[in-house]
């Protein structure tokens, strides 16, 4: 068996680099990030209004930067015998209007995002694609029911593997090799679910290992884990981490639309100036808590947001930070020129920020507000977070930019963490600016 080893990638000639891609593409990808993971989440439900598709990941070069693509979401049914199902069959594999990667035609009967993923994997053999199960759209009742018994855990894992790993998508629709594993996104286990959560992971791990013995392939298992101590207290982090290849740990939503006072949504550090000081609402404290609990640093994958959180009715002090607000920020037009006339998700006005959700903006829209349209930017070097404030409208946003990304990726390397992921690829600008900044920082 040919082994690939490139301990000093910068010394490899162009000819040697091309040989490396052919010989061992996965080793090359790992070498770029010194063995770390760089994952990107892709939202299934956001493709039509936003016009952002799997094909764009090839067009803007992002696909070549990722080690893992995490597709959101697959469903877990809230039934007496929960099983895995496809959240939206049209977007997933039926819609022939979804563009193929590099203009390629789909191989019927598999169209949509799934067909595009297979095309993307052909171009990037190193890329591992996981499907995330559950999420905020998922029903916790399904997780609770399935995880509650040995038979339920076994049946759910078998169902998910048959559908997504073996690729039995629908009658006469097969896509083996589509997904390489799972990200379990149970939001969030209750106290009584603590042992069952670990047991569920053990069952998925056991069944994936058994399949690997028959196929010779490696299958990945991860789980999405919260930053809020009130939520991760119900997970046996050490035991759960032992079952998975890595954890995707939220590095955002430390502040949000539930807060009446502005704060920073993804700060790296705490500060004495923070009115919520010493409440574990920063990435550094989350990292230290997870590692103290027994999670190996090498399995800690830090989440970075490609979206902003905002408020309005904010008073004019401290660049708008730590100030009272009257409401969450409105949805804006994507060019930043004004409010979205109609944000109904059934028939939204054209040209609005593609999240169509008050209190949030994509990074693509944020770029159109930086020192424009009445907004002034400020960077909190103590906490490592960017902000925008419009004095006239009293509107404030907190977000990541290339400067904060550089500091966070340096932190990842300094603390020997497992890597990073971005939520979500659909929210970045069309060039993938923020995603590429993360990739560059990890190299």
Radius of gyration computed on alpha carbons: 22 Å
Number of strands: 17
Low-pLDDT residue intervals, each spanning 5 or more residues: 1-27
Oligomeric state of the chains?
single chain
Helical content class: 25-40%
CATH class: Alpha Beta
Number of H- or I-type helical stretches: 15
Q: Going across the biggest sheet, name each strand in turn.
A: 1-2-4-7-8-9-10-17
Question: What do these coordinates show?
Answer:
It is built from 15 helices and 17 strands. With 443 residues, it is of the alpha/beta class. The protein has a single domain, classed as TIM Barrel (Alpha-Beta Barrel). Strands 1-2-4-7-8-9-10-17 form an eight-stranded parallel beta barrel, surrounded by six helices. Strands 11, 12, 13, 14, 15 and 16 form a six-stranded antiparallel β-sheet that branches. Helix 12 links the parallel strand 9 and strand 10. Helix 1 packs across helix 2.
């Amino acid at each position: 068996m040919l082994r690939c080893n490139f301990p000093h990638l910068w010394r490899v000639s162009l000819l040697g680099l091309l040989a490396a891609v052919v010989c061992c593409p996965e080793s090359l990808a790992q070498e770029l990030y010194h063995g770390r993971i760089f994952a990107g989440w892709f939202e299934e439900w956001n493709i039509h209004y936003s016009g952002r598709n799997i094909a764009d990941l090839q067009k803007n070069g992002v696909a070549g930067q990722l080690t893992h693509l995490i597709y959101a979401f697959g469903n877990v049914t809230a039934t007496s015998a929960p099983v895995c199902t496809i959240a939206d069959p049209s977007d997933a594999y039926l819609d022939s209007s979804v563009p193929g990667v590099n203009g390629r035609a789909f191989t019927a009967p598999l169209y949509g995002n799934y067909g595009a993923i297979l095309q993307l994997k052909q171009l990037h053999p190193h890329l591992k694609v996981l499907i995330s199960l559950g999420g905020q759209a998922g029903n916790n009742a399904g997780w609770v029911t399935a995880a509650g018994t040995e038979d339920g855990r076994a049946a759910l894992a078998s169902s998910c593997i048959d559908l997504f790993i073996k690729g039995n998508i629908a009658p006469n629709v097969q896509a083996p090799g589509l997904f390489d594993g799972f990200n379990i996104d149970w939001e969030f286990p209750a106290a009584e679910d603590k042992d069952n959560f670990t047991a569920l992971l053990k069952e998925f791990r056991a069944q994936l290992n058994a399949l690997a013995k028959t196929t010779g392939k490696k299958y990945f298992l991860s789980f999405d884990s919260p930053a809020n101590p009130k939520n991760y207290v119900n997970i046996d982090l050490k035991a759960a981490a032992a079952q998975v290849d890595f954890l995707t740990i939220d590095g955002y939503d430390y502040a949000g639309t539930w807060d009446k006072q502005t704060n920073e949504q993804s700060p790296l550090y705490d500060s004495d100036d923070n009115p919520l000081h010493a409440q574990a609402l920063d990435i550094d404290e989350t990292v230290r808590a997870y590692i103290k609990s027994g999670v190996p640093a090498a399995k800690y994958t830090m989440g970075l947001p490609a979206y902003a959180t905002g408020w309005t009715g904010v008073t004019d002090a401290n660049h708008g930070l730590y100030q009272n607000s009257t409401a969450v920020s409105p949805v804006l037009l994507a060019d930043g020129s004004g409010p979205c006339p109609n944000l109904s998700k059934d028939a939204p006005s054209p040209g609005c920020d593609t999240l169509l959700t008050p209190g949030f903006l994509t990074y693509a829209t944020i770029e159109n507000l930086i020192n424009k349209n009445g907004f002034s930017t400020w960077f909190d070097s103590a906490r490592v977070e960017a902000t925008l404030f419009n004095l006239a409208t009293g509107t404030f946003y907190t977000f990541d930019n290339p400067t904060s990304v550089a500091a966070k990726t340096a932190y990842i390397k300094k603390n020997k963490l497992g890597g990073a992921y971005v939520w979500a690829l659909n929210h970045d600008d069309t060039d993938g600016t923020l995603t590429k900044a993360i990739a560059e920082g990890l190299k």
